[in-house]
Specification:
7-stranded antiparallel β-sheet, alpha+beta, 49% helix
């Protein structure tokens, strides 16, 4: 009987360790998934104000810098969607995702990305790459011109 307990005890310990590790990983994932964006915008109205303001500022900056450099440039902003067309060089689409309180970004260079608002940095940040929306867009537009 003691031999059976000794043989089984390590397995039970391993099982307990594996179960505990899995629970810890799930908890960490859930904490990361509940980003600071949820706290940044207590209501939908404040999210829309910040997101619209950001998209309008991005459009204004792009128009100031690019219109004279790239002749095929065209833009459109409405209903929470900003579209930047650069002719054969590609199209960028930035849009609000209200349920997630995010701005989604589609780029012909880097592909799709999601940005959460970071209160501490006062900017929209891609949590996977820790890069800001404005910095990414600026660097990509520099490559296009």
């Amino acid at each position: 009987m003691n031999l059976v307990r000794l043989l089984c005890a390590p397995s039970l310990r391993n099982l307990f360790f594996v179960r505990t590790t899995i629970l810890q990983q799930k908890l960490q994932f859930n904490i990361r998934a509940f980003s600071s964006t949820q706290f940044a915008f207590p209501d939908e109205k404040s999210f829309h104000q910040r997101a619209d303001s950001t998209l309008e500022d991005l459009l204004s900056n792009v128009q100031d810098q690019i219109e004279d450099v790239i002749e095929d440039f065209d833009s459109d902003f409405g209903n929470g969607v900003l579209t930047l067309r650069f002719g054969r060089k590609g199209t960028y689409v930035l849009n609000k995702q209200t349920p997630n309180r995010q701005i989604w970004f589609s780029s012909p260079i880097s592909g799709p990305k999601r940005f959460d608002y970071d209160i501490d940095q006062d900017q929209w940040v891609n949590l996977r790459e820790n890069s800001s929306l404005s910095t990414l867009l600026s660097s990509e537009l520099t490559r296009l011109s």
